[in-house]
Amino acid sequence: MIAVRRRVPLAAAVVLVLIGVSTEVARDAGWRLNLTASEPLGLYRLEPVTMTQIPRGALVELCPPAWVTPAAFPFYMQGNCPGGGKEMLKVIVGIPGDRIWVSADGVTINGVTLPGSAPRLRSNQYPKIILPRLRGEVRLSRQQYWVYGGGARPARAALSFDSRYFGPIAIGQIRGLAIPPRAPGPGLPSLR
Question: Which of 1, 80, 184, 192 counts the highest number of beta carbons within 10 A?
Answer without folding.
Answer: 184
